[in-house]
Amino acid sequence: MTTPTHAASNAAAFHALHQAGTPPLVLVNVWDAASARLVEEAGASALATSSSAISWSLGFPDGNNLPRTLAMDALKRIVAATGLPVTADIETGYAGSGSDYATGLLRDTVLAVLDSGAIGVNFEDSGDQPLTGVDEQCRRLNLIRKTAASAGVDLFINARIDTYLSGNYPEQAFEETVRRAEAYLAAGASGIFVPGVTDLHILHELSRRIDAPLNALAGLGAPSVSELHDAGVQRISIGGNTAKAAYTKVSKVAGGVLGGGNWSELAGARSHAAMDALFES
Length: 281
Description:
With 281 residues, this protein is an alpha/beta fold. It has helices at 4-16, 33-41, 51-57, 68-80, 105-116, 134-150, 163-166, 173-186, 200-209, 225-230, 241-258, 272-277; strands at residues 25-27, 47-48, 86-89, 120-124, 156-160, 191-193, 214-217, 235-237. The mean pLDDT is 95.
Protein backbone atom coordinates (compact mmCIF):
# COMPACT_ATOMS: atom_id res chain seq x y z
CA MET A 1 0.00 0.00 0.00
CA THR A 2 1.32 3.45 -0.93
CA THR A 3 1.82 5.66 2.12
CA PRO A 4 1.85 9.49 2.06
CA THR A 5 5.60 9.39 2.72
CA HIS A 6 6.15 6.97 -0.15
CA ALA A 7 3.98 9.06 -2.48
CA ALA A 8 5.91 12.21 -1.57
CA SER A 9 9.21 10.43 -2.18
CA ASN A 10 8.04 9.09 -5.54
CA ALA A 11 6.74 12.51 -6.55
CA ALA A 12 10.08 14.14 -5.73
CA ALA A 13 11.95 11.44 -7.64
CA PHE A 14 9.66 11.88 -10.64
CA HIS A 15 10.11 15.65 -10.72
CA ALA A 16 13.88 15.14 -10.55
CA LEU A 17 13.78 12.96 -13.67
CA HIS A 18 12.68 16.03 -15.65
CA GLN A 19 15.51 18.34 -14.60
CA ALA A 20 17.63 20.02 -17.23
CA GLY A 21 21.10 18.56 -17.48
CA THR A 22 19.91 15.01 -16.77
CA PRO A 23 19.30 12.28 -19.37
CA PRO A 24 15.85 12.46 -20.94
CA LEU A 25 13.05 10.59 -19.22
CA VAL A 26 11.95 7.84 -21.61
CA LEU A 27 8.56 6.33 -20.88
CA VAL A 28 7.27 3.08 -22.37
CA ASN A 29 3.56 3.40 -21.69
CA VAL A 30 1.74 0.55 -19.95
CA TRP A 31 -1.88 -0.55 -19.46
CA ASP A 32 -1.95 -3.38 -16.91
CA ALA A 33 0.08 -4.99 -14.13
CA ALA A 34 1.97 -7.36 -16.44
CA SER A 35 3.03 -4.66 -18.89
CA ALA A 36 4.07 -2.50 -15.92
CA ARG A 37 6.26 -5.24 -14.46
CA LEU A 38 7.80 -6.04 -17.85
CA VAL A 39 8.70 -2.40 -18.50
CA GLU A 40 10.10 -2.06 -14.99
CA GLU A 41 12.15 -5.23 -15.51
CA ALA A 42 13.55 -3.73 -18.74
CA GLY A 43 15.10 -0.90 -16.72
CA ALA A 44 12.53 1.90 -16.62
CA SER A 45 13.01 4.66 -14.07
CA ALA A 46 9.29 5.51 -14.05
CA LEU A 47 6.04 4.30 -15.58
CA ALA A 48 3.32 6.09 -17.51
CA THR A 49 -0.07 4.70 -18.38
CA SER A 50 -1.65 4.99 -21.82
CA SER A 51 -5.33 5.91 -21.80
CA SER A 52 -5.80 4.47 -25.28
CA ALA A 53 -4.21 1.15 -24.31
CA ILE A 54 -6.26 0.87 -21.13
CA SER A 55 -9.40 1.71 -23.10
CA TRP A 56 -8.72 -0.95 -25.74
CA SER A 57 -7.90 -3.56 -23.12
CA LEU A 58 -11.28 -2.95 -21.47
CA GLY A 59 -13.35 -2.80 -24.65
CA PHE A 60 -13.66 0.94 -25.29
CA PRO A 61 -12.44 3.19 -28.12
CA ASP A 62 -9.92 5.87 -27.22
CA GLY A 63 -11.04 9.45 -26.67
CA ASN A 64 -12.76 10.05 -23.33
CA ASN A 65 -14.99 6.98 -23.62
CA LEU A 66 -13.61 4.95 -20.71
CA PRO A 67 -15.59 5.15 -17.45
CA ARG A 68 -13.54 6.63 -14.64
CA THR A 69 -14.12 3.68 -12.31
CA LEU A 70 -12.55 1.30 -14.82
CA ALA A 71 -9.66 3.67 -15.50
CA MET A 72 -8.91 4.08 -11.81
CA ASP A 73 -9.19 0.34 -11.13
CA ALA A 74 -6.60 -0.29 -13.84
CA LEU A 75 -4.38 2.44 -12.41
CA LYS A 76 -4.53 0.93 -8.93
CA ARG A 77 -3.41 -2.45 -10.24
CA ILE A 78 -0.52 -0.87 -12.12
CA VAL A 79 0.69 1.14 -9.13
CA ALA A 80 0.38 -1.89 -6.85
CA ALA A 81 2.55 -3.93 -9.23
CA THR A 82 5.57 -1.62 -9.07
CA GLY A 83 7.68 0.46 -6.75
CA LEU A 84 8.45 2.97 -9.50
CA PRO A 85 6.80 6.39 -9.78
CA VAL A 86 3.66 6.14 -11.92
CA THR A 87 2.03 8.93 -13.88
CA ALA A 88 -1.53 8.45 -15.13
CA ASP A 89 -3.01 9.53 -18.44
CA ILE A 90 -6.41 10.87 -17.37
CA GLU A 91 -7.45 12.31 -20.75
CA THR A 92 -9.71 15.27 -19.87
CA GLY A 93 -10.30 14.02 -16.33
CA TYR A 94 -13.26 11.67 -16.86
CA ALA A 95 -15.42 14.59 -15.84
CA GLY A 96 -17.41 15.66 -18.86
CA SER A 97 -17.45 19.33 -19.75
CA GLY A 98 -19.20 22.55 -18.87
CA SER A 99 -21.19 22.52 -15.65
CA ASP A 100 -20.06 18.99 -14.82
CA TYR A 101 -16.77 20.44 -13.64
CA ALA A 102 -18.60 22.48 -11.03
CA THR A 103 -19.86 19.28 -9.45
CA GLY A 104 -16.39 18.20 -8.44
CA LEU A 105 -16.02 15.33 -10.91
CA LEU A 106 -12.54 16.46 -11.91
CA ARG A 107 -11.60 16.83 -8.25
CA ASP A 108 -12.86 13.31 -7.63
CA THR A 109 -10.67 12.01 -10.45
CA VAL A 110 -7.59 13.69 -9.02
CA LEU A 111 -8.32 12.31 -5.57
CA ALA A 112 -8.73 8.83 -7.05
CA VAL A 113 -5.38 9.18 -8.82
CA LEU A 114 -3.73 10.21 -5.56
CA ASP A 115 -5.48 7.40 -3.68
CA SER A 116 -4.00 4.91 -6.14
CA GLY A 117 -0.51 6.12 -5.31
CA ALA A 118 0.22 7.67 -8.71
CA ILE A 119 2.21 10.92 -8.55
CA GLY A 120 1.62 12.47 -11.96
CA VAL A 121 -1.06 13.03 -14.57
CA ASN A 122 -1.35 13.82 -18.25
CA PHE A 123 -4.23 16.24 -18.74
CA GLU A 124 -5.28 17.26 -22.23
CA ASP A 125 -7.10 20.18 -23.80
CA SER A 126 -8.78 18.22 -26.60
CA GLY A 127 -12.12 17.68 -24.89
CA ASP A 128 -13.89 20.44 -26.80
CA GLN A 129 -13.73 21.59 -30.43
CA PRO A 130 -11.48 22.87 -31.73
CA LEU A 131 -9.81 22.73 -28.29
CA THR A 132 -10.89 23.65 -24.78
CA GLY A 133 -10.67 27.40 -24.30
CA VAL A 134 -7.49 28.58 -22.59
CA ASP A 135 -9.26 30.21 -19.64
CA GLU A 136 -11.36 27.11 -18.98
CA GLN A 137 -8.39 24.78 -19.30
CA CYS A 138 -6.42 26.96 -16.89
CA ARG A 139 -9.28 26.77 -14.41
CA ARG A 140 -9.21 22.98 -14.63
CA LEU A 141 -5.43 22.85 -14.26
CA ASN A 142 -5.61 25.11 -11.25
CA LEU A 143 -8.23 22.84 -9.70
CA ILE A 144 -5.95 19.83 -10.22
CA ARG A 145 -3.03 21.67 -8.63
CA LYS A 146 -5.04 22.83 -5.61
CA THR A 147 -6.59 19.39 -5.09
CA ALA A 148 -3.18 17.71 -5.10
CA ALA A 149 -1.68 20.36 -2.85
CA SER A 150 -4.49 19.92 -0.33
CA ALA A 151 -3.59 16.21 -0.24
CA GLY A 152 0.07 17.03 0.33
CA VAL A 153 1.33 15.69 -3.01
CA ASP A 154 3.47 17.68 -5.45
CA LEU A 155 1.68 16.14 -8.41
CA PHE A 156 3.53 16.38 -11.73
CA ILE A 157 0.93 17.84 -14.10
CA ASN A 158 1.90 17.20 -17.70
CA ALA A 159 -0.33 19.57 -19.66
CA ARG A 160 -1.03 18.11 -23.09
CA ILE A 161 -1.57 20.64 -25.87
CA ASP A 162 -3.25 19.26 -28.98
CA THR A 163 -2.63 22.14 -31.35
CA TYR A 164 -0.54 19.96 -33.69
CA LEU A 165 -2.29 16.64 -33.15
CA SER A 166 -5.76 18.06 -33.81
CA GLY A 167 -4.80 19.70 -37.09
CA ASN A 168 -7.04 22.62 -36.17
CA TYR A 169 -4.29 25.23 -36.29
CA PRO A 170 -2.53 24.68 -39.64
CA GLU A 171 -1.09 28.20 -39.79
CA GLN A 172 -0.88 29.14 -36.11
CA ALA A 173 0.07 25.88 -34.36
CA PHE A 174 3.42 27.06 -33.06
CA GLU A 175 2.30 30.38 -31.59
CA GLU A 176 -0.91 28.85 -30.23
CA THR A 177 1.13 26.12 -28.56
CA VAL A 178 3.42 28.66 -26.90
CA ARG A 179 0.47 30.81 -25.83
CA ARG A 180 -1.27 27.86 -24.25
CA ALA A 181 1.91 26.55 -22.65
CA GLU A 182 2.61 29.85 -20.91
CA ALA A 183 -0.97 30.04 -19.62
CA TYR A 184 -1.02 26.40 -18.48
CA LEU A 185 2.25 26.75 -16.60
CA ALA A 186 0.96 29.85 -14.84
CA ALA A 187 -2.14 27.85 -13.86
CA GLY A 188 -0.11 25.11 -12.20
CA ALA A 189 1.21 22.75 -14.88
CA SER A 190 4.64 21.19 -14.30
CA GLY A 191 5.48 20.24 -17.87
CA ILE A 192 4.17 20.56 -21.40
CA PHE A 193 3.31 17.68 -23.75
CA VAL A 194 2.94 18.44 -27.46
CA PRO A 195 2.01 15.24 -29.35
CA GLY A 196 1.84 15.24 -33.12
CA VAL A 197 5.17 16.95 -33.79
CA THR A 198 8.57 15.26 -34.15
CA ASP A 199 10.21 17.88 -36.37
CA LEU A 200 13.47 18.63 -34.56
CA HIS A 201 13.52 22.29 -35.56
CA ILE A 202 9.99 22.88 -34.23
CA LEU A 203 10.76 20.99 -31.03
CA HIS A 204 13.95 23.01 -30.54
CA GLU A 205 12.05 26.26 -30.93
CA LEU A 206 9.30 25.07 -28.59
CA SER A 207 11.86 24.08 -25.95
CA ARG A 208 13.50 27.48 -26.31
CA ARG A 209 10.20 29.32 -25.81
CA ILE A 210 8.64 27.11 -23.13
CA ASP A 211 10.14 27.39 -19.65
CA ALA A 212 9.32 23.84 -18.52
CA PRO A 213 10.16 20.23 -19.40
CA LEU A 214 8.96 19.45 -22.92
CA ASN A 215 7.43 16.03 -23.68
CA ALA A 216 7.38 14.62 -27.22
CA LEU A 217 5.44 11.61 -28.47
CA ALA A 218 7.69 9.22 -30.38
CA GLY A 219 7.25 6.08 -32.40
CA LEU A 220 8.35 4.35 -35.56
CA GLY A 221 10.09 6.87 -37.81
CA ALA A 222 10.64 9.46 -35.08
CA PRO A 223 14.08 10.91 -34.37
CA SER A 224 16.25 9.02 -31.90
CA VAL A 225 16.22 9.66 -28.17
CA SER A 226 19.53 11.51 -28.41
CA GLU A 227 18.30 13.66 -31.30
CA LEU A 228 15.12 14.57 -29.45
CA HIS A 229 17.12 15.40 -26.35
CA ASP A 230 19.52 17.56 -28.34
CA ALA A 231 16.46 19.45 -29.60
CA GLY A 232 15.51 20.25 -26.00
CA VAL A 233 13.03 17.47 -25.29
CA GLN A 234 13.33 16.28 -21.70
CA ARG A 235 10.59 13.65 -21.70
CA ILE A 236 9.83 11.11 -24.42
CA SER A 237 6.83 8.77 -24.39
CA ILE A 238 5.37 6.33 -26.90
CA GLY A 239 1.71 6.34 -25.84
CA GLY A 240 -0.46 3.55 -27.20
CA ASN A 241 2.32 2.25 -29.45
CA THR A 242 3.38 -0.31 -26.81
CA ALA A 243 -0.08 -1.85 -26.77
CA LYS A 244 -0.47 -1.67 -30.54
CA ALA A 245 2.74 -3.65 -30.95
CA ALA A 246 1.60 -6.21 -28.36
CA TYR A 247 -1.84 -6.62 -29.90
CA THR A 248 -0.33 -6.95 -33.36
CA LYS A 249 1.65 -9.89 -32.01
CA VAL A 250 -1.58 -11.45 -30.68
CA SER A 251 -3.11 -11.04 -34.14
CA LYS A 252 -0.12 -12.72 -35.79
CA VAL A 253 -0.19 -15.63 -33.33
CA ALA A 254 -3.93 -16.11 -33.87
CA GLY A 255 -3.60 -15.85 -37.63
CA GLY A 256 -0.89 -18.49 -37.71
CA VAL A 257 -2.63 -20.92 -35.38
CA LEU A 258 -6.09 -20.54 -36.93
CA GLY A 259 -4.76 -20.43 -40.44
CA GLY A 260 -3.39 -23.95 -40.47
CA GLY A 261 -1.75 -24.66 -37.14
CA ASN A 262 1.42 -22.63 -37.66
CA TRP A 263 3.06 -22.24 -34.26
CA SER A 264 6.05 -20.21 -35.46
CA GLU A 265 4.77 -16.90 -34.06
CA LEU A 266 5.07 -18.42 -30.58
CA ALA A 267 8.85 -18.65 -30.96
CA GLY A 268 10.71 -16.68 -28.32
CA ALA A 269 7.72 -16.42 -26.00
CA ARG A 270 8.40 -15.80 -22.34
CA SER A 271 8.02 -18.95 -20.25
CA HIS A 272 5.10 -19.58 -17.91
CA ALA A 273 7.49 -19.59 -14.94
CA ALA A 274 9.02 -16.29 -16.01
CA MET A 275 5.59 -14.68 -16.22
CA ASP A 276 4.67 -15.94 -12.76
CA ALA A 277 8.00 -14.65 -11.46
CA LEU A 278 6.96 -11.09 -12.33
CA PHE A 279 4.53 -11.20 -9.42
CA GLU A 280 6.37 -13.31 -6.87
CA SER A 281 7.40 -11.38 -3.79
